[in-house]
Amino acid sequence: MAARKTKSTKADRTELIEALNAIEKEKQISKDIILEAIENSLLAACKNQFGKSENIRVNIDRETGEVKVFADYEVVEDDMIEDDALQIGITEAKLRFRDDVEVGEKVSTEVTPKNFGRIAAQKAKQVVVQKIREEERKVLYVQYLEKEREVITGIVQRYSGKNVCINLGRVDAILMESEQVRGEHFRPTEHIKLYVVEVKDTPKGPRITVSRSHPEFVKRLFEEEVTEIQDGIVTIESIAREAGSRTKIAVSTVDPNVDACVGMNGSRVNAIVNELRGEKIDIVNWSDMPEIFIENALSPAVVMDVSIDEYEKTARVIVPENQLSLAIGKEGQNARLAAKLTGYKIDIKCE
User: Fold this and answer.
1) Cα separation of 320 and 327, whole Å?
2) Pairing status of strand 151-160 against strand 191-202
3) Is the bond into 300 cis (omega within 30 degrees of 0)?
4) Per DSSP, what are the bridge partners of residue 69?
5) pLDDT at 5 over 60
6) Taking Cα atoms as reference points, which of 66, 65, 57 lies closest to residue 20?
7) Cα 221 from Cα 249, distance rounded (Å)
8) DSSP assignment, residue 83?
9) Per-residue pLDDT tens for 170-210?
10) What percentage of the chain's residues is helix, strand, coil (to nearest 5)?
């Protein structure tokens, strides 16, 4: 029976090392990290066995998986022993260890308890499962943290009340009602693009906040679609959006051909408008002169005069009478977006 137990224990140890080698290769989790965690877990278990663990060491052989427990003692004069769990007298130390041992040295002896292999196996399983979960969570967090403030594609799973559950590959995200565009509805299994607002690390894995109403969503779509933006020829200077209705984008360029954003026959803008389910997009020229920038921002209305107050960040705009409603826009939308785009409070008057 004893021989069978020894054989079984050795097999268990070998299986542990083989399993850790496989985990290291497959999941990129260091075998040493897991073994250290198992040693720490066993050290805590030793406290129940020995009452103290300050001088206890647990060592797992990295090749064989054999577990041994050692107790370290400080050698002191025979009449100076204050705690026999941590100290050993010089006379006993010479008898048990070696003749040339001296006061002040540390000596170690193996104190591996009986049936410790079974305890070690149980702890090892718990630690391995826990470490795999922790490391996989870390890997996922880092993977999606790199996608923060970028556009990703997700698959619609289902509606949960007014929120939408989205599968992003290895994790799920919730498209909250507040981050949706009013009027948009999705079908299960539909592929949609989303802007990653924030990625947080939590005990249950990364929590990813996604949006389709964020102004940066439109900006990132343009960066994906327009190679001139990727190459730095065209720069998006500012953006103002009323999601689902209209967006204004101010661009500057080292090349006077700003139509690069639009593409042939409006192909590039059309692709983005289709993704945004018909949202209107105005592209205007940015200028470092506020008067010109405000005039451009109020397009398609024709502006006669702009006077600004830099300190108050206000602008007074004069337009022809027949352009007043166009400059203000439906329910004031054009003026609102122009104000957001330029950073000026705009007061529009007809001539």
Assistant:
1) 10
2) antiparallel
3) yes
4) 58
5) no
6) 65
7) 12
8) -
9) 899 999 999 999 989 999 999 999 999 999 999 888 999 99
10) 40, 30, 30
User: How far is Cα 349 from Cα 351, in angstroms, rounded to an integer?
Assistant: 7
278 phi and psi, to 5 degrees?
A: 95, 5
pTM to 2 decimals? 0.70
Q: Which run of H or E residues covers position 193?
A: strand 191-202
Q: How many residues in the chain?
A: 351
Residue 220 CA to residue 236 CA, distance in Å, equals: 10
318 CB neighbour count, 10 Å cutoff? 17
Sheet strands side by side (includes 345-350): 305-309, 314-319, 345-350
Q: What's the Rg (C-alpha) of the chain?
A: 35
The rounded distance, in Å, linking the Cα atoms of 199 and 218 is 20
| Cα gap 351→348, rounded to integer Å | 10
Helical H runs in the chain?
2-27, 31-50, 90-96, 116-145, 215-225, 227-230, 267-275, 290-297, 324-328, 333-342
Residue with tokens 């556009």: 151
